[in-house]
Amino acid sequence: MKAEILAVGSELLDPLRRETNGAYITGRLRSVGVDVFARITVADDASWLEQAFRQALSRADVVIATGGLGPTSDDLTREAAARAAGRALHRDPGLLEALRERFARFGRVMAPVNAQQADLIEGAVSLPNARGSAPGQYLDQGGRLLFLLPGPPGEMQPMFDAQVLPIVRERAGGRALVTRVLKIASMGESDVEQIVAPLYKTYENPRTTILGGAGQTELHLTGEGASEEEAAARVEELASGIHGLLPGRIFSDDGRDLAEVVAALLSGRGKTLALAESCTGGLVAARLTAVPGSSAFFDRAYVTYSNQAKADLLGVDPQIIERHGAVSEETARAMAEGARRAAGTDLAVAITGIAGPTGATEDKPVGLVFLALAGDGVDRVRRAQFPGERDRVRAQAAQAALEMIRRAVLGLAPV
Amino acid sequence: MKAEILAVGSELLDPLRRETNGAYITGRLRSVGVDVFARITVADDASWLEQAFRQALSRADVVIATGGLGPTSDDLTREAAARAAGRALHRDPGLLEALRERFARFGRVMAPVNAQQADLIEGAVSLPNARGSAPGQYLDQGGRLLFLLPGPPGEMQPMFDAQVLPIVRERAGGRALVTRVLKIASMGESDVEQIVAPLYKTYENPRTTILGGAGQTELHLTGEGASEEEAAARVEELASGIHGLLPGRIFSDDGRDLAEVVAALLSGRGKTLALAESCTGGLVAARLTAVPGSSAFFDRAYVTYSNQAKADLLGVDPQIIERHGAVSEETARAMAEGARRAAGTDLAVAITGIAGPTGATEDKPVGLVFLALAGDGVDRVRRAQFPGERDRVRAQAAQAALEMIRRAVLGLAPV
Question: Which residues in A lie closer than 8 A to residue B26 (C-beta atoms)?
């Protein structure tokens, strides 16, 4: 089954605005085996909108429109959809009454303009909206399913999940898609590809795609089946094969990011952590403390940007910096040891590097980063050369620091 | 003039993928007075794609398609556009030769499949691509302008700016749009609206829209004129009126974010800064050190998550915390003073609060944050109650800390 999604509203075409309903609906439709063939954002223009509905209803099995159901003269979705479907709009007395009651509940009188929110396409069924005044609509147009939903994600999403998805799932014949994402922080895209391609290419179902990001490679496995269980079992089989090929490399297969995984590991094992950050400037601390409950393991971070701060706070011997430079294995090691000693934590990790655009020397280019970990009976250091500009270098360094913690806590060999 | 933008490629419909060419092109088209009425993302499907081109060419003055110009069988843009325009495709000998030369330059032999990249729609003009193998195309289809461009932003953007925009600008009769964004960190959307609406509503040109974000309100002024200068002058007039209504409140009108503005202020005045962060957990430090050259003013940050860390690093008297709590005006003040003393900087700012979801008490709800600034002859403290969940509270607290620095350095009254 093929779907088409329409997002209605001139404001969504603002270059600074991001339309998010389309991605949400695409993901949910895929979970019931329906592929989205087109996503359209259309201005509040009666003619363009009607044409968009007409084209969608001529080719898609499922058409889902969001937005344009409000009470103003800019809200043209109901009328445009009705025209495209060749049907009349009529004012539904039950909906009108419900609207009046809703206003009364908030101690207000309904303005006449709001009455158009009670207009229903001939033959359509109203979809209640628990969180807003605009109800949705569902029409079976000669076997093609048309849904009109409100634009605000907080209203649209629960309506979609509870009222739209069950209808689409049934019509889709109960085919289900399940996607699982395997995340790897310690290997580049092409290295992962080389190891896992010979396995995943033997599968037509699940399909596998590989995505590279800053300091992370993701494998997306999408399995199809007659039921969600069957699809999940297919994904599980391939996923466990991939786990076998990449022992200890996959840090997440449940959607969590690396900071969440590290936070859960440290909390679960009752380990405390301190950080000494130079080039990442607080990024690792900010990511870890973004996780609720991080105070269970996170004690403090020293963001030691200047050499003086490294000496003052971490007791780094100025001679080490003078001899080897602030960006060196020796300084990273001294920072980690100093942080652990000063904070009295189980573990400490230090990051020092050249984020750019300035600061590079002939033998120390932009992107050169040293990471060190000090802990009870553990002592690791890593020299890394990250590609890209300031933001990407910092993001990759932060990711590498988190992976270093994960591997040390799990007793995995350094990368 | 009305424009329609087509993004071609099934991978762009992945729920995790973000299509960015549309926003870029929309912004650039607005600068020459062309409004985008629809943006469409279409799968690599010959029939859907041809229909999308057919519809766009039936209603838009300018049609811009990105992607699908590569050498594989999935690359259907050329063929679909040609069919929709009712024109033939022919292989251009000059383009073919240029392609062969390009491969030779990289020491490779061109595979036969690549030859289709030399296919040109009858009557179209080829648009050279300096950064990739896929040339673009430009066709005047009975007064409607059709452009086919490659998908990678690094190839598309320079081609758009140098080759597409001049043609569109001339056709648009030289009308120009200029947008300026005024950013305010210290007032909510409705407070800003109340003060500036009576002024901006007297203008039809520029148009003004208000956008609220975490800890920030933006006013977007878009002026139109016969030239960019004329449009800019109209924007300037309204902008200076708004500046007058909001003295000291607008921190940026040139696109910079608050961290960049604060970084430039501190660098420019030769002031040094230390931070003491609790609930923001390194977020303020991470934002400031994201700015290139931040080592000129940024000395260090103490991310003191535990009470012990606040005592160890900042010398906060444990009795203050015991008496008033870690989230209190007194603790914030002691943290800022302690940080300034320990770091020996000109200024220090401290943030302590309850980010949630846990940690709230009856008289200290989630979102309560205290900010303090200590400096040479300056001493400020602010109690704030931020709405939202953990991420939003932290983002707003970080923004408030940066605004506190900006106002103190500029000698503006506290908010």
Answer: 13-15
